[in-house]
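Sequence only, no structure available. Ideas?
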Amino acid sequence: MEPTKLDNIISGWAMPKMALDRPEFVAVQKAVFDQLALGKPVSLQDVIVSSGLDQDVAKNQFELIKSIGAGLNDSGEIESYVLSIIPTMTKFTIDTLDLYAWCALDSLFLPGLINKTARVQAICPTTGGLIELTVTPKGVTQINSPEAVLTVEIPSEISEKERQNRKQPIGANCDLMHFFSSEAAAEEWVGARNNVTTLSIAEGWLLAKNAWIDPFMAKL
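Reply:
I predicted one. Tokens follow.
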């Protein structure tokens, strides 16, 4: 059977093998996500306590995360790394705590990584309409607009080695990945952007699950 468009996107977006083969990196990422989910910036000490790693190991991985696109405060603490305490276009509310995701796709896999349900809200860039959905660690359970879709970047056809060595910071493609009120609204925005495609919310969840949640959680 020929791979579908979604199969190809999942394969292209899969977490680099290099990252998954470094359990200490996964453990520090998890510690950062969990601390940000409390609405607090993340210090090295937070990571050491949460991950249980040796100080030098934790510091090396913490500095790596800081170097690949994390947003920092004046004290050098992480305040934005996929999950953010700084406002973005994608609001991500846990209980009554207002947080933010870097982009639409991030908001679909983050609940699975932090094991919390989130209410996600975003404004359609084309219509200005509100898209609101509830995302649990197991999937999307509610959405206010059944016709809503999201855009995702189409991963380039590059080798695994090249993918692992990309210099582009994490999150640099988030300006391409949004929720839209409908397929028509998304297509109007996509226009001539040939590196972007649309997915249904159900397809977006399958991408989140297969490319991020399952591989990540299997390494913890």
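The two ends are 33 Å apart (CA to CA).
Hope that gets you unstuck.
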